[in-house]
Amino acid sequence: MRKNSVKNRKINDEVRRVLAQIISGGIKDPRISPMTSVLVAEVAPDLKTCKVWVSVYGDEQKKKDTMAGLTSAAGFIRGELARRVNLRNTPQLQFILDDSIAYGVEMSRKIDEVIAADQRVEEMREEEYTE
Question: Quick check: helix, strand or coil at residue 92?
Fold first, then answer.
């Protein structure tokens, strides 16, 4: 099975969907933030490993705690994944923190600030011309 085959994409999508359900509703570890999103699950073609990119909304401490909680619950999560998804092998899970959503929000905020400053400058120029 090639890495970008249709079969592999379907497996990745199904694993991502099931992991999101497990993390949001099946884990009782208080370290794991309720604002945790599974962005991407990339299962290796041999189904031995799976890299899971997660995003956590909150400060750095909340992100560290969530990653520690996910790492310690990896065995439980893998067992639930095996129960819910019928795969030949259930992959070992490796959780990776992805800050792309927070980065995107920050960039959007900065763009809005620049646009607002640009509008203020434009308004000041218009006032100078009308006087």
Answer: strand
